[in-house]
Write a structure and sequence with these properties.
Strand order of the largest sheet: 2-1-3-4-5
Number of strands: 10
CATH architecture of the largest domain: 3-Layer(aba) Sandwich
Oligomer: single chain
Largest sheet: 5 strands, parallel
Helix content: 40-55%
Mean pLDDT: 91
Order of helices and strands: HHEHEHEHEHEHHHEHEHEHEEH
CATH class of the largest domain: Alpha Beta
CATH superfamily of the largest domain: Glucose-6-phosphate isomerase like protein, domain 1
Structural class: alpha/beta
Strand content: 5-15%
Number of helices: 13
Number of domains: 2
Length: 395
Amino acid sequence: MMSNSTPPPLISWDDVAIQPIIWQQLLTRFQQGAFEALKLPILPDMLLAVGEGSSHHAATFASQTIQTFLPHQTVRVFKPWMLESLLKTNALQTSDEAYCLFLSQSGKTAALLQASKALRTYWQHTPMALGITNATDEAVPLRAICSEYFRLQTGEETAIAATKTFSATVLALCLWAMVNSQASAEIKHHFIAELESALPVVQQWLDSLANPSQTLAPLVKLITATQTPHAGVVLISRGANMNVLPEIALKLTETTKQLNTYEHSEGFKHGGMAVLNPSLSHQPCLVYCVPVEAEEALQFYADATVHLKTFVNEPAAAYPKRLWIRSENTPPIPPNLTVWAGETSVELTLPAIKGLLPQQLLLLVSLQALCYATSTALGLSSIGLEKFIATPKKP
């Protein structure tokens, strides 16, 4: 316990703001050949990405880019318990040539190590595996079970909610996929060029969010307007942005100390709308993350129209709070969805950048910044959560 030291913050702005620098460092290491040691002579047909919590979300986030670079491989993302369950029931249905991606920020996640042991028993040999971690200790257990190993070198997380290690893991996975890809040099160069051109835009955007009382203030007010704990936050999107939402739902839970969730805009119509009703005293705050793909965005707006149809002609107080987050290069939000703008509907417009992964990363850091601003406004401490991060430094 931390009896004689100050508990860590729930989320650290410094760790959020430093991410573009960390991404550039990873790109520099890539260009200097650091990923060449991770290139496999023959890549098996099956890739198993295994991690818990944020590591699982990182694998999900990166899976679309991995699949783009490795179209002939089957990418399957598992939490450790899911993988173990499949192994125990002989339902994995894959050959012993599968390649594992083991993800652990600490390098010693117990469930991941147990899943690795189960795989070794199932296949009767130690699987080929890449381990990605932020651990500085070369003797961490993850190192011993991996044929290849990569350290993120992001520096220690200073808060409960991991931010920089999450995005660094995502990018490292994407760069690993690219170095093992048979894609042309031109395609790879274009991917790197998009990332590098996005970095200063993301950094400038984060700089503009550094003072929460400016850009983020209306958003924070919307989320914290009702007494907490209240009906919570529902993150809604569709398309590629769905890969961003699981991690942010976790971060919102960690930083607001209330359970939050995420939903596909189509899926929300199949049950989620039960919490949207003018007769209910508390409505959840709906965070609408507009898809970056134009066609998906239009369908997203159509879904949202259905979500809100019971509130037509209702007063502002009856409407659920709506936070819209969209890029400048996506279709504008229809007026019927922003009714009562400024009261129960607020919009945050992100700068336009090119490339699917850069756009996803921009949404990620924007939502991380919102988590920070919301947590700060609520004035919550990490007491009761501090035991879940690394052993604290002595005062």
